[in-house]
Structure formats: C-alpha cells, structure tokens
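Write out the 3D structure for:
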Amino acid sequence: MNPFVSPQTLITGEGVLTEVVEQIRKFGASKAMIYADPGVVKAGLVTRLEHTLQLGEIDYELFTDVVPEPPLNIANHAVQVLRKSNADIIIGIGGGSTLDIAKACAVLSSHEGKVEDYLNLTGTKKLVHKGLPKILIPTTAGTGSEVTDIAVFSLDTTKDVITDPYLLADTAIVDYELTYSLPPRITASTGVDALTHAIEAYTSIRASELTDTLALDAIKRIGKNIRTAVWNGSDNEARKQMALGSLQAGLSFYNAGVAGVHALAYPLGGLFKIPHGESNAVLLPYVFEYIWPSCLGKMGNVAEALGLKVDHLSDREAAIKAVEELYNIVKDVGIPTTIKEFGIKESDIEQLTRDAVKQTRLLARSPKAYTEKDIRAVYGKAFEGKLKLN
C-alpha cells in the first residue's frame, strides 16, 4: 500500500496571495498570527500580505523573530507568544524555517511543554490533536515545507525534527510572484534543495508510481531552469518553473521520504550553521556517488530528466553521467563543491559522522545501506572534492 497525503487545499498561480482572505473565512477565524522572517519583511512581501488582510478586514498580529535554521529557544519563544495571543489561525510566509516555525506553533499552542519535548530523536511527548488551522505561503522555490508535516530545528551540533500529520497545512498558497525577487544565492540554495528532494524521493525505498511521476517532472523543471533562475533572475518563466518544480518535489518527498543527503546534511547545519540548502547541495553528488549502483535504472532516468543524452549509454554509464551532472549543477549555480570551503577541517569529519549515524529515520530510506565507515568516507570525499566514478 502506498498512501499519498497532501494539504487539504493547494492554491497555485501568479497573484494568488489574495486568496488568503477567503481561506481565513472558510475556517471562521477572526484573528491571524503571521510568522515571517526579517528578510521577507524587508523584501516587502509581508506588506503585500498585510494589505490583502486589511482589505479583507482581517485582524492579525505579526511575529518576525525568526532566524534561518531556527534553534529551540526561538521556536519556544514563538510558541509562547502565540499562547498569550487570541489568534485563532496561523499564517506562515517565508522560507522553510519560517514555515516550520508556523507549523510547530499551530500545533503546540494547545499542547503542554516545549518544542524539545516533541522532537523525533529525543522527545518524550506525543502530539494528540491538531491545534489551530494553518495557511502556509512559501516565498522560496525550494524547501517544500508548505506541503510537508516536518518542522526542523537546530540543536547544539545537529538537527532534529517534529514530524506528525497534525503539522500538515490546511491550505498551501504557492504564489509564483513571491519568488521573483529572490537573490541569486538563495535561488541557488533553495533550488538545489528542491532538486535534492526530488532525486532522493525518486530513489527512496518508499517511492511509489505517483511520487515517481512528481519527482521526475520536478527534476526536469529544475534541471532545465535552475541556472537561468539563478543568473538571470528577471526571467519569470524560469522562476515559475522552479516554483512548480519545488512544489512537485515537496509533494513527492513528503510521501516517499528523503534519505542520505539529508541525514549527512543535518550535522553540517547543526554544527557549522551552514544553510540547509547549501548543506544538501555540497553533499548531493558525493552521496549519489555512493548509492548509484543500488538504483541504476532510476539514475538513468534521472540523467534523462536532467536533459542528458543517454540513448547510446548503458544503465551504468547513464547513472554516472547523472552524478556528474549533479556536481556540475552545484558548481554552476555558485555553491561550494567541498565542505572545506565552508571552513570545515578534516578533523571535524569524526564529529560529523557520529551525528549523522543518529539520523536513522532518514538513512533507513536509502536504497543502499550505510555503515559508520560509509558515512565517514562520503564526508571524506566531500572534503577532498573529487568524484571517483570509474
């Protein structure tokens, strides 16, 4: 059995932010708590949302103390502010960190305890009800957080998550226009993040026919448009295709799961505070250098989806071409291709390995199993920056 789950309502298109008022009224809500990060505020996107709410005579409160890769103290502060308010619906607008905060707050507002009590690896409490309705509005084309039930938080040296169907959005609004002003670096990191979601979902042991269809189409859209979106940001068609690809990748990975790239990326973000998209990107080719023999046919399909000519190639040759193209994409969009470029020392690999081994939820979805030695070797190759495919 392969169940497929998505938000109850999914609204896509240019200018569809205005639909937020109707969605709020659908829930009979009278006051919204808006979660947004300072960058989204500075870009004027929150002002657009506020204007829409004011026209619809919707009361709201704004919380902007959100930071990338949010630590537990920020998350707990956000929950406490909500508990003291009289808001009866949640709106998250921004990148993945903001949407994760919004999801967690919506559910935990009516639960006892702190965020850490509900973490996947170390928490002792279970979520027992849904909490407040939530509307999630992404402003990047990458995280997929608007269609998943996962909220990621930074710990001292790694990351952990709250994951439960109660965190799933009631409504996700994907307005392509909100991504048109993204700067190149964020476009690159979130774009490769979405590509990682799609490829990991496609090769996951939990993949199904439906998730495969979404993942492959996402790979096609992102592979064709990511370089243009990064370096020619005024190309709105490329931006639109990236937003669509990100959405498809999010729906796919939510149902099929991600695996080794994310498992090894979490310690990079936790220990070195490397943004999530860049953590995934720098590891992407090296993880797939390790696993491609376990999914030859699918990697050949990935190569074709990325626009490579594979008709005359064997499955093995096509798979290798796919891994090489992943490296090329990361390099071409300006993301470092070695972890040492982020200031990581070779001696740090042991700590990274110890933390990555703990990500059993993610590692279990890989088509090729990992030992501690395997994880150490992947980090080593990512440090050296050399693919060894032949």
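The beta strands are 9-13, 31-35, 59-63, 89-94, 134-138, 150-154, 159-163, 171-175.
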